[in-house]
Every structure is written in structure tokens, then in C-alpha cells.
Amino acid sequence: MLSRVADSLYWMSRYFERADNASRVLKATYGLILNPAKFSTEERWFRAVSSLAPGAASSNVDLQRILFSLVADPEGVFSIVKCISGARENARQVREEISSEMWEHLNRLFHDVTGSELKPDDDAGAMQIVTLVREGSYRFNGIAAATMNHDEAWHFLQLGKYIERACNLCVLLDAYFVVGKHADDLDWVGLLSSCAAFEAYCKACTAELKPERIANFLLLKPEFPYSVRYSIDRMHDALTAIGSLSLSRRTENVERLVGRMRSMITYVQIGEIIAGLHKYLAAIIEQCRELHAAVQELYIEYPIEVAFQN
Amino acid sequence: MITETDISDRSGVKAALHRYEFNGAYDEMFSAVDHPRKQYRPLHNLLLNLGSDELRRSKSEADQSFFNQGITFTVYGNDKGTERIFPHDLLPRIITAAEWETMERGLTQRITALNLFLKDVYHEGKIIEDGVVPGSIVYTCKHYRREMRNIKVPNDVYITVVGTDLIRNPDGNFVVLEDNLRVPSGVSYMLTSRRVMKQIFPGLFQRCRVRPIEQYSQALLSTLRSLAPEGRSEPTVVLLTPGSYNSAYFEHTYLARQMGIELVEGRDLVVHDNIVYMRTTFGLQRVDVIYRRIDDDYLDPLVFGNGSALGAVGLFNAYRAGNVAFANALGTGVADDKAIYAFVPKIIRYYLDQDPILEGVETFLMSDPGQRDHVCQSLDEYVVKAVGESGGYGMLIGPQSTEQERSEFRKKIYAQPRNYIAQPTINLSTAPCLVDGIIEPRHVDLRPYILYGDKITIVPGGLTRVALRKGSLVVNSSQGGGSKDTWVLQN
Q1: Mean pLDDT computed over B227-252
Q2: Binding-face residues of A in 88-127 toward B, CB within 8 A
Q3: How far apart are the C-alpha atoms of B381 and B406, rounded to whole Å?
Q4: B282 vs A1: CB contact, 8 Å cut-off?
Q5: ipTM of this model?
Q6: Is 3.50.50.60 the CATH number for B362-424?
Q7: What gap in Å lies between CA B223 and CA A244, rounded to an integer?
Q8: Residue A211: domain span
Q9: What span, in angstroms and rounded, lies between the C-alpha atoms of B425 and B397?
């Protein structure tokens, strides 16, 4: 596959996952702030913002503007609409690689979320966009799985999706466990819903909401699609598949990085890391970054001289 | 899908058809008011049984389908909403088996001769030596490429993909208006509009016995493969696009996907030791045939030196070395120059010793003083065209021009006579179109697509372009034109 194409597929997938993550978090947070709680509305928003737009969060946030800027602000770097546009722009570059059904769905979603100009104080309108993306995202993933060849292109999509998901989950967990310390049961429900995990958690651990158990579930549960462990396993699968297709390439560095990250999450127990959770999450994010750079160097932006040496 | 409708609404369509205006042009559907030609009777019946609401609904269903599929083209010079759907008319244009048979023979003859002409002017130049086409015209063509002299192209095929524009004159005969031998576009609209029409008019489509066009992509791929350098039994064919901001990008992606080949940009290509490679996740992979949708001038900055980032450095040397093939070859624009066009009947007679099956339009060369004076005296009767332009740019339509425009053009003609030709204004045929829910005549042309590989293949159909503005004779999409699905009927 063309390197440029692989790169576009990877980024299309990352952008889509980013929009998907933001829509989950906003939907859950919006539900949460409708309830009175000891944890104030501002703090809850602050937590959501700090997980979605790192650096943009400040203590005196304007609530109306925040929802708007996270959903539809054309200037906002992290807004959902911006991410959907980014996904579509990348898809546009590789239209011949993805299935027509995927393109049509993504294109329609793009036009739906950008079609009407959202006003900064229109909460209902903003939440409508969130819902569109929520549903659009499940559908998109389903369409992709059902209509594409599960070949190299597919593996680059998976890689992008899960590297993005792992990072987003780590940032979100950090916001709940480290940044905001006095969460109540409602907040834990909010965290679980932010990861589409409430029902799955109840099935596995009952509705008893214990922070440590929740952390264990969202970090280390290998069977749950929105856990960090699951994401890293899928990254590993994707990279192994890509590596086995291109036997001529020197894949050692990428294998080492993903293997190290995988062992770091596979052979750990929650009790060992819960006290130093911030450090642990930061380490995973850093390793994802390194992995991203290594993949770029191996498959996308390799120097020509290296290519002729092989 | 079209179903039943209520009576009052139906009489509206009937009345509209009854008011259908003729303006002296040949009408594709009607020989006289309420008298549809035989091949149009099923469509006419269907229209009589439909309401205008129904038509509007089908129209918006079709538009939605184009929009969702992203079948758009880019409008330059407009920051917002740069992607538009290609305006599409709901009513098909129907061509009989006999009409098509003549067209097919005529096009095959014409393309064969033009290809021989290209080979000749880039090698011995016999046709010039024999005084059939003046060298002063050939060598001054904007698209003549000296770099192509004595270069052997695969199978001696210069023009692999051609889109020839035909029009129907008031007698009902098809004549050639223009040959597009460089990078003709529009075939994706032909293919996608067929898909949409089958959804909307399934019953009518079946009743009419329309010949299929869906095999175009396979035919194109095997044509391109036939160009591969010797010894490359499993050649890698790629489509080279200028990128996603090009107005025809949709078409590039569409064709690449239909053929299952890579869509590459200049930056994906690397030339090393006169061999072209593309940069893939597996490393560098050799490229054998390039279906390039980039003009000659931008292919290789090393040779055509304009700092273009669209092509790749070294492509031309690899081509010269015979390690890669281009479709179309470089320098084919010399044969679709509008001044050369005037000589095509002679070119056909010279190489094939046959009379042309399809006529052209009478053409006056402004480089010829006698012809120039004659035309300039009555500019209001002629269409004047710049020879190296396409897309309907640089054109004067005499009967629809003002005195001021004419005097400006007269000055231009005298300043650069070689740059212009004139043709009598031809009343292109009209076809019924659905405009704001009413059926009205609009002028149309036809662009069939011709493939030249081991043999010449013409898929039965083409792009019927429509001048959507009332009374307009300009069908180019950049000038407010749209398209219609073209149905060629089975014998």
C-alpha cells in the first residue's frame, strides 16, 4: 500500500475515534450535570474539558461556551465537528481505499454535523450533534468491519483507532482518579458511561461502584473494547499483521515498543499501580507516542537510501 | 422509484409537453409537438402518466444519491462550498442502434487516423513533406512537444483514452465538434449516472433494452496493461492524480477503485536509475504504466521546468528509456489543436485512403488572410475559438455577442491569427430536460469514450452534456452545463 495512503487511513481513524470519544464524554457529562451533587457543575465540566482539550481547561470556564467549543467551534482544535472534518478530509484523500459505503456514511455524517450553523448558546443543538456522532460512530465501525477487506488498510485503521483510544482512556482516567478527587457514585456512573462501560461493568462486577474495581475494569480488562488493555492488544495485533505482510521491512523497533507496552499492562495488578496511577497512565501515553513515531519512520516517512539497502 | 400519481397533477405534465417549444434545432425526442420518435415512446408514455410532483421527487432522490456518494466537482475561485454535485438531468437521452453503429465506425476511423498522424509528426513527418498539412501549423501548435521526436511509444499508440465531442446538426446527422486527446474527463459521470438511473427508472430501463456500459473499467484496465514495457508480465498500473483539490478528483478515485489500481500523487513516486517506483509500506515498488490525469507540462519539472510539484523528477527520462508507459503519450495535444481539426478529413484520406464517415464542422483558419477577412466581416454569424483552449474558455459566440465583444475579438484575431479558428454557429440538437419541475428543451452534445489498446473499444454510451441555461449553446460543466444519462439501444 502507498505510504501516503496508509498515513491517511491511520489519521482518518484517529480523528474519528477522537470525535467518538468526545461524544461519549460529553453525553455522559451532560447527563451528570443535570443532577445536584456535592461535586459542583463547574468541577464536572472542568474534568470533562481537561480530558478532552488538555491545556484549554481553566478554573473559570464559561459553561455555555465550553459545550459549544467542544462540539462545534470551528476555531477549537479539539471540537467534534473539527475531528469529523479531519476524518472526512483524510478519507477524501483515500477514497479508492475505503469502501463506498464507508465514504457515503462518513460524508453524510459530515454534512449532518456541519449543515446548520450552531449558535454558542444552543445546548440542545450541540447535544443533537453529539448524538449524531455517537450513533454515526457505531454505524461507521460496523460498516467498516462489514464492507472492507480485512487487509493492510484495515490494520492501519485499527492501529489508528486503538492508539487514539488508549491515549484518550488514559487521559480520562487521569481526570477522574487524579485531577478530581472527590467523586461520588454519580460521577463513577459518569466515568463508566463515558467509556460506554456501565452495563458491561455491572455484568462483570455488579452495580457496586468501587473506584479501584472501576480502574481495574477500564484499564486491565482484556475482554472489554473500551479498556486500555484491550486497545493495546488490538494495536499489537494490527502491527503484527502489518509486519507479517511486509517481510522485507525492519520491524524490530516497532515490535519491541509494542511488546514492552503490552507486557506492562498484561502482567500488572491494579493494587500495584493505583497509588501511583498518574505516573502509570503518563507512561502509557508516552509509549504510545514513541510507538507512533516508530511506525511513521518504518512505514510512512522512511528515507529512500534505507529503501534501497533492503 | 417511480410509482402512481393523482390525475390533476398528471395533466400538468401533459400540458407542459404540449407546450414544448421547437427552435429550429433537431429535437432528440420529438419530430413534432406530441409526436415522439419511436425510440422515445416508452419514455413519453411514462411521462404522460407521471405528475410533476412525482418528477420533482425523483429528481431530488437522484440529487441526494449523487450528493451522498460525493459525486462532486470542484468549483474554483469560491472558498465556501467548493464541492458541487454535477448537475444532472433526470430524462435519459436515447440513441438508436443504427445511429450508434455509424458513430462507432466513424470514431474508430477517426481515432485510427489521428494516431497515425501523431506517429508521423513525431517521426518522419511525411504528411508535412507531402504538403497535406502545413508544417507551419503543426510546429506552432501550443501542445507540440519537441521532446517527443523519435521516441518510440508502446505499440505505437499515442492516444489510449479519447473523449470525442459530437453534436447533431439540424439535419439529424452527428458531426464531430472536437477531439479530446490529452486528458479527457467525465467518464465517471457517465458510469455513476447510469447507476442512479437504474434505481429510478428500473421498468423503463428494462423495456427500452439499453446496452450496458458497466464494463468500461475492465476495458480501461486491460487497455492500460497492454502498454506495459516488454518483459513485465504482471505490470503495475497506477493512476496519477494532481490531488484532492483537482476538479476531477472524484473521477480519479472512482476509476482507480473500479480498476483496483493505486491512485498515486507525484509525491508518491521516486525515479531511480530511470525506473519509476512508488513509495509503499512494503518499501519501493516498481511502476510500469501510468494513467496520468496531469497535463504534459506538469509531469516532470526537470524537462518542462516550471517547478511543478504535481509530477515527479525524472519521469520523462524513465519514459524515454522505455521503462514506463504513459497513457496518453506526451504531445498528443498537437492532434486536437483546433487548427489541425480543419485538416482531419484530409488526414483520414491521407493515411487510410477512405472518406470520413463522420463529418466535422466547416472551419476557417484565421492564419489564412482570405478566410480571416471573410470571417471578420461578419463575426456575428460565427463561433470563434482559441485553438489551444478547452472547457469552453476563450470563445466568442457570434449571434449571442455584443458589438463591443466582437470588436475586441476582431483585435485579438488580427494580433494573433494562428491562435484562432472560426466555425459557423451550429444549432446543436435539443433534448427535453426537467427544469424546475417543467419539461423544456435544452441544447445537448455527446461525448463517447474511446479506448485504444490492442484494438479500439468504444463503450456504447457516453456523456450527454446539457447547456442548462435556456437558449445557451455552451455545454461545459465549468460554464453551467450538466449531464444526462445516454442510452444506446440494443438492435
Answers
A1: 91
A2: 92-93, 95-97, 100, 103-104, 107-108, 111
A3: 11
A4: yes
A5: 0.79
A6: no
A7: 34
A8: 3-309
A9: 7
